[in-house]
């Protein structure tokens, strides 16, 4: 076993579960390994945290359930602009649950320690700011802002109030991403030069054509409050309320909803503060249901050299009508290997590839175009200069790191949030980190709709020019 291989296997925090698995590469000489990452076990706390959720849609219910999986957390109130979801909240969390259609009634309650903001994107920033000023800890769904112009003000309020504030891109709390960061920093893939990340989907639900209730009408929806902060007001439309992700007025499209997840993970692993330039293209290819955002979108993003990392480029892609089916990946490519992350933070695989010391001769080369005598002269000289070992390409088996069965990164993300409330320790994804991921994602929308390159000052978090 090579010295480099031994160094690689010395990293702690995992246990080897499977060996001798067959390899896809016929050239590989070493056994493949799958390692199960160790899940952190937390001690049950004595002090109780009382929470309320504002926005009881898909993420509202899922976030609430993840929060309640943390010991010592109690759900006491819920807010939504559709009456049916408030009734459902009582069915799930108890008939004594306080419910309201006005988020301000939640914030006035003295018995609430923290709020989950899981509304449509257009309300994330304002409700979070209101909550922090009322002394509440805030868990804000991503993206933390609907517009780039909102970011610095939200950061300012967080610093001013010193409120605990965490953004909900759960993969940054994943044990798989933490291990991937460790391995990246160890230099196992050499010098980073590019990243490819994508989400593919192939279903109506995956493309945000969510089920609309039969009573989802103007009598049961507070439509005026929903679009109170919109620049352009529309007549009531159940699609715009229950499928808000499809509309720029309330959502942020595939860039704000999904690119931001990819960028959060990339920034966490590489330690980056953000890119220098962003350019995106897209189309409304298939889901022509009234939405005004693309269903296929690609972006090319350039990260300049900084003290945190060398220069590298990122390509992002979302395809809502992909023949590949539902699939997502992030591939961090270095000069000597690739970290391949799949799913939502449950696993990753390291593939190492190194060039031989010798530059190579023959094969797809100009050698055969020379005379036989010249070929012999060149080959003799090459073999004198380079030993057989130096001419061979090093072989490495892939190693997969996987979270244990049943692991859920969202639960760890909420556990980190609750720990910050109880102990005062820093959150995993604060307002600055959250905005540095959200802004380049939203800049992809600006680039698409304005058809231009967006230049970004990552240090000062502002658009240049």
UniProtKB/TrEMBL annotation:
Residue ranges occupied by any Gfo/Idh/MocA-like oxidoreductase N-terminal domain in the UniProt entry: 49-168
Tagged with keyword Coiled coil: no
Top-level division of the source organism's lineage: Bacteria
The entry's keywords: Oxidoreductase
InterPro entries: Gfo/Idh/MocA-like_OxRdtase_N, Gfo/Idh/MocA_oxidrdct_glycsds, GFO_IDH_MocA-like_dom, NAD(P)-bd_dom_sf
Residue ranges that the Swiss-Prot or TrEMBL entry lists as coiled coil: none
UniProt-recorded Gene Ontology molecular function terms: nucleotide binding; oxidoreductase activity
Cited Pfam families: GFO_IDH_MocA, GFO_IDH_MocA_C3
Domain GFO/IDH/MocA-like oxidoreductase: 228-339
PANTHER family linked: BCDNA.GH03377
Protein name per Swiss-Prot or TrEMBL: Dehydrogenase
Organism of this sequence: Mucilaginibacter phyllosphaerae
